[in-house]
Structures are given as C-alpha cells and as structure tokens.
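Troubleshooting: if your tokenizer reports a length mismatch, compare your output against this known-good record of 261 residues.
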Amino acid sequence: MTYSLDALIIEDDADVALACEQTLQLEGWQVRSVPRAEEALAFLTTPFSGIVISDIRLPGMDGMALLEAAKRQDPELPVILITGHGDIHLAVQAMKDGAYDFLTKPFAPERLQEAVRRALQQRRSTLAVRELSQQIASRDRMDARLLGDSLAMQRLRQTVAALARSQADVLVLGETGTGKELVARCLHELSPRHDAPFIALNCGALSESLLDSELFGHEADVFTGASKRRVARIEAAHGGTLLLDAIESMQPAMQVRLLRV
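Known-good structure output:
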C-alpha cells in the first residue's frame, strides 16, 4: 500500500535522486525514489495518495510516456517533470499534456519544496472531494438497502456510517434472517476498503478441518488429498473485509488462533 507515500521520484541519476529525497524529507514528507519509470508504474496501480516527480530523460520509458500512463491511471494525479536546459520544448508539451509543473536543472532545493507543497495541497483536496463523493454515493446505496424510517433503523444507519471509518473489528448481532450480512456489506462499502475484496465465510456450514483449510489455506501436497494450493480466505480478504458468519459455532481453539491473525 502506498497511502503513506507523499512523493515518488523517478530519477536514474543516483546523486540527483538522493538530493531530491533529502530535500523533501527535510520537510517531513515520506519519499521514495526509483531509477526507472517501469518501476514507478507498480506504485500507481495501487491506491496512491501522493504525487509523482520524474526526470524526462530516463532509460527505457521516458518521463513523457510515464506522464501519459499516470494520467490514464488517475487523470487528477499531479506529475512534476524535471528537464534539462535543452528540453524546454518538451516541458511546454508536457504542460499541455497535463503535467502539474516542471523544474529546469539545476534548481534550488526551495524551488522543489515549493512545487511539491503546492502539488500535495492540490492532491489532498482532490482526494478529500473524491472520498466525500464516494461516501455520499455509498450512503445513498446504504439507505436503499437498510430500509425503514423507524428510530431503530435510523440509529442503525448512523452506527454503520460511524463504524465504517474505523479499523476496528465489528461484531454484528441479530436473529437469523435479520440482515447481518447486509449490514456487513454496508460497512465494507462505506469504508476506505471498499475497492478491496469482501469475503464471506459461513463458519457453521464447515467441519473444523475444512474451516481451518478455508481460513488459513494450505500448500499443495502438505496432507493427503491436498492436490493443489488453497489460498486462505484471510489472505484473499487482505486490505478488504472478512465476514465470519455464525462465528459462535467455531470451536474455541480456532477462535484463539484467529486472535493471532
């Protein structure tokens, strides 16, 4: 996950990359540098809340191609390009193509810090508006799912909305058929994890050995009948939500193992 990364630097000159990293770290920002644009793309395919700073001249994919790829991934992602004196025409074209800013070598540390500060302010504002829009859309979907105007249903919707923003484990109680899984899905859709998997497992429908295999997985041939690797439900739900339905039917020893996850 790259939510905590403020700036990703793509620079094949190790001395320049180090200087940029140290300049930004002095401001308290979380920074990482990579020497090739191809490596940077791996960061941009995951949830990324930072900005990109890239030299135009790079081995393999250059900064202009990276700008195009980054804008395809997220049109609102600020990209700052670094150019040499002879690349001003490229910088002008980059601005037309959506670059946030460009710096001409050699540049003062203060110039880099100011460009990054402005880009981060814009990025954070953009992400805040995007998250608010998602929350409103998710709450509209929740209102369409958790129906009812009674005081109890109003409180339920308020509780779900409040809990969804936390990282706390949630115990959903209710009789059979009252909609416990529906509440769990609403919690997932309203949470920051809504783009990650929602995995449901009915603990009461499986024997202890099968439940162990489903929860924790296994490698191929580790026991008789294990012809292929089974991915653990816990692993499959990583970064998302795991619903353990009918957890009260789970053996105490298995519940103790879950405490260590």
